[in-house]
């Protein structure tokens, strides 16, 4: 492909480094080329399925974006699924083999693997873009013809893509090196007893290698080299428009005639070597009916696969999360079962705004009360005293100097410590929240009212930023982002819906992660949890205590507002049992004031 | 004097085939000129950096017409079109705006960024823009008639990335014929970058291709903002001043997009696009 001098430069560097690390543009060899930072390699090696899924999702996202750039958006979805790379043209899916990720060849680092995957995806998409429809629909009955057809088509689509996007040429090269050159035994010709079959196999195999190998493979059969040169002359031209007009079917016919002459007798069934059979099958882009299960055979554990699918759908911003995970609240969580955490931004339903307004009207009398608590703590009081016999001269009182010596004033400034707060409110939205919390009010309603109270009271204060998350476990740990500095539609707080169980530990951890990633640096973080009952038994309950401890060590305050029959035993730094708005507001306000004032 | 006589006298109404150092689709260019010489107002839309404002200027130059540009975004109240009150010599005086003078003489009046203001600001010039072509100015108690050879061309940015713009109401849409400008095709753009902005042929082609791909990604909603001619011009300028190509690309194309989101960020997308065309 292209000129050998150009190929030279691809061999020793990873192409994906260009955008994975941002080193490409900066030519910055020594450094970590932030700010386009990627995930870390460690994530993939991690035991944590979450982390693995995040890394895989990030890779998939990046690879499919390259495909999008070349072939247009939403034409194909790229997924890890089959053992072998293949394309489903009906469902418009490219299934990438995860083989390079899970069995990386010796010396392959993550960027090299991403290169190979990108090459695979681009190759498949190139077929979809440039191969004529008959290439998929008619498969030659003659197996040798099929091999030739595939080789010609592969070379053709790759070169065509390269002409339009010269910078991506290296990806094809990387893919071919991975595929055809790493394991010489895989493709080597294996002698057969039948002399004719042996000759045919040898020519077919050698032709494949001469065309597809990146190591300048030269066949021992002169005719093969000759035919390959002929094909190269036809395909490796510089004019993409002319190349697009090339009929690969005719070309294959000619190549076939040149390569085999009249050696192949059509009344004898020759068999292909297994390597070439494999190669042909890969070219067979339509799954045979009935073999769907076999086609979707995957080498990725199914739970991981599900996580990836989920994350792709939710379009998580996994990259940031994973960086944080690395920075590490805890490296060894979780022991089984690993919950998948999904941040959702729910669409507001019809009554949401109304319910929020209702909640707001209930807590209205307490909003100012709570805000004042905080504002008092955050103000600078200036007290001017006049008519003093000593102090600063008060020029406005000079008129009375003749009668009195009280012409001085003194200014006393009481600086109350101003402190910024990032406050996250975690609202339990598990199924038990539908039970009543008091007379005529359900726990969901109460939690909503409190959320409204906090947001209404605290959000207008300049030094405070507020987040509100709902959480429950149903299928996955769902973190509903109800309010945040980036999502200021308060109607979301009016969302109802209580289902699933209480994954309190996980929720705490991920809410803290969000707060730390989105909040302001070096600002006191406060997490308030409104929950009823107990968290899920087992690891979750342990996690709560552990997370509270960890957060405390990180300087993050945790406050628990107890609703329903919840015991006080989870180690939260501050606990406020629900009694009535007045008491809770006062207590909470006092607490906030304390937080702001204390060292 | 009728328009027919005027046509006989000078070049009024004779279309130009092309504009020097500037590209518009030839068909659009001729339609725009036909419209404006027929006394029909033209509204130019299109992504930023497709040359809307520049085109109005170039048209005035090509036809040798006086040019007056109104930055509509700076107009705050409906009466601002016509002038403002000033306190001079112990009394308030109404100072008439240049706009009022401009519409009374032949020439092109460009209403730039027409939808940067709320539609009610447009109300006071509706009578100027429709077939009446006259307006009564309260402050000076006089009727102003628009000169028959005064041409109105408005420009506006439409689209999701434009904050601070307002939807047009139908009254405005009725008074203009809308023509959407697009980026020049890759080859033409490369040619312009080479001839006008002094880029080398290789760089010009690269910049043109990157610009086109990024803009198409915007239309596919893979990127949040469109890419017009301007970053390519800046990049060409940087390279001409001796900056390496990579640095030029970084400060013009890459840094316009957000780095948020690691591998999923828009900057990464832009880098991937740039890589596709770098040899």
TrEMBL record, chain A:
Xref: InterPro entries: VWF_A, vWFA_dom_sf
Entries under Pfam families matching the protein: VWA
Domain of life assignment: Bacteria
Domain VWFA per the UniProt entry, residue ranges: 422-565
Protein name: von Willebrand factor type A domain-containing protein
SUPFAM superfamilies membership: vWA-like
From TrEMBL, chain B:
InterPro entries per UniProt: AAA+_ATPase, ATPase_dyneun-rel_AAA, CbbQ/NirQ/NorQ/GpvN, ClpA/B, P-loop_NTPase
Gene3D superfamilies the UniProt entry points to: P-loop containing nucleotide triphosphate hydrolases
Domain of life: Bacteria
Domain AAA+ ATPase: 38-186
A GO term for molecular function: ATP hydrolysis activity
Pfam families for this protein: AAA_5
PANTHER family hit by this protein: MAGNESIUM-CHELATASE SUBUNIT CHLD (PTHR42759:SF1), MOXR FAMILY PROTEIN (PTHR42759)
Family: Belongs to the CbbQ/NirQ/NorQ/GpvN family.
Protein name: Nitric oxide reductase NorQ protein
Species: Desulforamulus putei DSM 12395
Taxon lineage: Bacteria, Bacillati, Bacillota, Clostridia, Eubacteriales
């Amino acid at each position: 492909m292209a000129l050998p001098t150009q190929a030279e430069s691809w061999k020793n560097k990873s192409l994906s480094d260009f955008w994975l690390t941002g080193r490409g543009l900066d030519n910055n060899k020594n450094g970590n080329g932030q700010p386009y930072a990627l995930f870390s390699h460690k994530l993939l090696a991690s035991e944590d399925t979450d982390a693995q899924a995040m890394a895989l999702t990030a890779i998939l996202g990046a690879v499919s974006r390259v495909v999008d750039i070349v072939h247009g958006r939403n034409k194909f979805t790229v997924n890890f699924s089959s053992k072998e790379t293949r394309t489903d043209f009906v469902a418009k899916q490219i299934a990438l083999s995860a083989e390079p990720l899970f069995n990386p060849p010796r010396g392959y680092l993550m960027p090299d693997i991403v290169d190979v995957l990108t090459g695979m995806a681009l190759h498949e998409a190139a077929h979809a873009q440039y191969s004529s429809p008959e290439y998929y629909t008619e498969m030659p009955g003659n197996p040798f013809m099929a091999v030739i057809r595939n080789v010609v088509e592969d070379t053709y689509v790759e070169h065509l893509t390269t002409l339009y996007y010269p910078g991506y040429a290296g990806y094809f090269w990387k893919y071919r090196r991975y595929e055809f050159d790493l394991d010489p035994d895989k493709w080597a010709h294996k002698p057969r007893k039948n002399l004719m079959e042996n000759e045919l196999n040898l020519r077919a195999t050698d032709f494949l290698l001469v065309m597809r190998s990146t190591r300048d493979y030269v066949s021992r059969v002169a005719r093969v080299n000759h035919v390959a040169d002929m094909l190269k002359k036809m395909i490796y031209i510089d004019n993409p428009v002319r190349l697009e007009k090339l009929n690969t079917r005719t070309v294959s016919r000619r190549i076939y005639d040149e390569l085999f002459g009249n050696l192949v007798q059509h009344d004898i069934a020759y068999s292909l070597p297994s390597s070439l059979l494999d190669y042909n099958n890969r070219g067979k882009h339509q799954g045979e009916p009935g073999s769907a299960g076999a086609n979707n055979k995957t080498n990725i554990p199914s739970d991981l696969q599900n996580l990836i699918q989920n994350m792709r759908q939710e379009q998580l911003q996994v990259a940031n999360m994973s960086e944080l995970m690395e920075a590490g609240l805890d490296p060894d969580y979780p022991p089984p079962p690993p919950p998948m955490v999904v941040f959702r931004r729910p669409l507001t339903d019809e009554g949401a705004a109304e319910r929020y307004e209702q909640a707001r009207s209930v807590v209205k009398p307490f909003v100012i009360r709570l805000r004042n608590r905080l504002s008092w703590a955050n103000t600078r009081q200036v007290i001017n005293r006049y008519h003093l016999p000593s102090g600063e001269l008060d020029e406005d009182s000079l008129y009375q100097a003749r009668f009195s010596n009280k012409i001085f004033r003194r200014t006393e400034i009481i600086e109350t410590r101003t402190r910024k707060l990032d406050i996250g409110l975690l609202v339990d939205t598990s199924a038990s929240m539908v039970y009543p919390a008091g007379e005529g009010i359900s726990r969901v309603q109460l939690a909503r009212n409190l959320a409204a109270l906090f947001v209404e009271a605290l959000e207008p204060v300049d030094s405070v930023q507020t987040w509100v998350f709902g959480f429950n476990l149903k299928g996955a740990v769902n973190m509903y982002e109800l309010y945040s500095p980036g999502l200021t539609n308060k109607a979301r707080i009016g969302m109802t819906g209580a289902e699933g169980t209480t994954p309190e530990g996980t929720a705490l951890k991920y809410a803290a992660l969000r707060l730390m990633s989105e909040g302001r640096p070096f600002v006191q973080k406060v997490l308030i949890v409104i929950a009823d009952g107990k968290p899920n038994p087992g690891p979750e309950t342990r996690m709560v205590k552990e997370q509270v401890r960890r957060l405390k060590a990180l300087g993050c305050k945790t406050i628990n507002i107890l609703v329903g029959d919840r015991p006080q035993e989870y180690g939260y730094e501050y606990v406020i049992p629900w009694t009535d708005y007045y008491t809770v507001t006062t207590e909470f306000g006092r607490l906030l004031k304390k937080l702001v004032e204390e060292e | 004097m009728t328009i027919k006589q005027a046509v006989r006298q000078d070049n009024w109404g004779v279309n130009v085939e092309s504009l020097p150092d500037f590209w518009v689709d030839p068909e659009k260019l001729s339609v725009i000129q036909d419209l404006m010489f027929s006394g029909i107002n033209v509204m130019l839309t299109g992504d930023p950096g497709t040359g809307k404002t520049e085109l109005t200027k170039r048209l005035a130059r090509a036809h040798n017409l006086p040019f007056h540009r109104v930055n509509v975004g700076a107009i705050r109240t409906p009466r601002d079109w016509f002038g403002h009150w000033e306190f001079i010599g112990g009394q308030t005086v109404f100072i008439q705006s240049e706009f009022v003078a401009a519409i009374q003489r032949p020439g092109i009046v460009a209403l730039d960024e027409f939808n940067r203001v709320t539609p009610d600001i447009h109300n006071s010039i509706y009578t100027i823009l429709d077939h009446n072509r006259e307006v009564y100015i309260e402050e000076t108690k006089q009727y102003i008639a628009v000169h028959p050879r005064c041409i109105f061309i408005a420009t506006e940015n439409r689209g999701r990335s434009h904050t601070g713009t307002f939807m047009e109401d139908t009254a405005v849409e009725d008074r203009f014929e809308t023509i959407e400008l697009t980026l020049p095709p890759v080859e033409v753009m490369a040619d312009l970058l080479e001839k006008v902005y002094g880029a080398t042929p290789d760089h010009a082609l690269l910049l043109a291709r990157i610009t086109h791909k990024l803009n198409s990604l915007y239309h596919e909603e893979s990127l949040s903002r469109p890419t017009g001619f301007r970053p390519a011009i800046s990049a060409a300028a940087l390279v001409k001043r001796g900056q390496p190509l990579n640095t030029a690309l970084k400060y013009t194309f890459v840094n316009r997009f957000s780095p948020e989101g690691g591998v999923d960020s828009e900057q990464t997308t832009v880098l991937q696009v740039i890589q596709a065309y770098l040899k």
